[in-house]
Amino acid sequence: MGWFRRGPRRDDEDAPRDPGFSYFSEREAALFRGRVREAFAELGLEVTVYADAVTDDSGRRFGLGTLAAVCHQDPRGTPVWPELVRRHVRLWVRALDGPSALDTLPPEQIRAQLYPRVVSGEGIDPGTFGYARTVAPGLYEVLALDLPESVMTLTDEALERLGDPARLRERALHNLRDLPVEGHETVKDTDGMRFEVILGDSFYTASRVLDLDAVVRRVTGRALGEDGALVALPFRHQLAFHPIRDTSIVPALGAMASFAASGYEDTPGAISPYVFWWRAGTLTQLSEHAEEDGQLRIVVGDDFQELLERLIVRGPGRSGERG
Fold first, then answer.
1. Of 8, 195, 231, 238, which one is least surrounded by beta carbons within 10 A?
2. Which helix (H) or strand (E) is 287 found in, with range?
3. CA gap 101, 228 in Å, rounded
4. Which of 154, 177, 200 is where one domain is finished?
5. Averaged over 26-54, what is the pLDDT?
């Protein structure tokens, strides 16, 4: 099944791995960081290279995680790394050296290009993103300005210049709802396991979990029932869901847990390796990696256990959906 393929690997898996980016061998990591240093040098910038970032003489810091994952995932391999790195570095430097879009765009255009993004908490500094709304443990909703060459995640300081955060979020959600569904696939097997995946180039595809009711109706032609859905958002370009209607939830839960964990690994824009229960806009985590051995496992609380028992008693064909 294509959804579960790992990213391309170049050196053998038994080659010594890089401690910063384990999907690189030590040789590949050295090659990658060397390309990064060269790309900055071409722009007249000398940088100090660390395991997962570089800094220039003025103290500006450039994280390397997303770029490393982009290089790793590209099926063309190491020959295209110089161009990939050069393109990203140019965008970074141009964004920092040029005037801010917040200063050059008219207010209405800024509002028209606002979108909500669900992101991993690893990239959120509470001191800078105090307004961020908790979506689930470790996941946050922030506002982003969509630009032709980049996405600007807005800080508390930026929002102060734009107006009331609640009204800005309302406009951002409106913009999200207007986006097209770029792609839709059904993942299923011969035993009846099934779930839906929407995917696309948009940086906001996974964030459509914030408008899941409308997305499910749009994709399947049917509304969600009161029990909600299973969802997974492994990285920014994918959102998986399975409407909860009957006991088909059981095989879907295991498959989606594996799907989320596989899609999250080594991926640019990674969000979460877990599957969640969406109910009335609230996300409850249903999978985790065990601390003792790192194995993926399903964990359910009393509410979800009660749901499973109720579905078993209800039996097939009595989903209790709303219109």
1. 8
2. strand 287-289
3. 39
4. 177
5. 91
Tokens of 87: 């393109």
Q: Are residues 225 and 169 in the same domain?
A: no
Number of residues assigned to the chain: 323
Q: Do the beta carbons of residue 72 and residue 23 sit within 8 Å? A: yes
- Same domain? For 50 and 153 the reply is no
Q: What is the tens place of the pLDDT at every residue in 214-242?
A: 999 999 999 999 999 999 999 999 999 99
The letter for the amino acid at 127 is G
What's the total number of domains in the chain?
Answer: 3
Instruction: Say yes or no to pLDDT of 322 above 60.
Output: no
- Please give the residue range of the domain that contains residue 74: 2-97
Which tokens is 39 given? 């790309």
Written as one string, the DSSP assignment of 98-162 is SPPHHHHS-HHHHHHTEEEEEEEGGG--TTT-TTPEEEETTEEEEEEEE-SS-EEE--HHHHHHH
The answer to whether residues 188 and 308 belong to one domain is yes
The whole-angstrom separation of Cα 112 and Cα 147 is 11
Virtual CA dihedral for 180, 148, 101, 210, nearest 10 degrees? 30
| The residue to which tokens 């669900």 are assigned | 118
pLDDT at 6: 46
pLDDT at 303 over 80: yes
Structure confidence by residue, pLDDT tens digits, 127-160: 889 999 999 999 999 999 998 877 888 999 889 8
Residues 190, 285, 177, 237: is their CA dihedral positive or negative? negative
3-state secondary structure of 11: coil
Domain co-membership, 235 together with 274: yes
Q: Is 40 helix (H, G, I), strand (E, B) or coil?
A: helix
Is 238 in contact with 267 (CB distance < 8 Å)?
no
What is the percent of the chain where pLDDT is above 70?
Answer: 94
Q: State the pLDDT at residue 92.
A: 82
Do 303 and 199 belong together in one domain? yes
Yes or no: say if 290 and 297 are a contact pair by the CB < 8 Å rule: yes
pLDDT of residue 26: 93
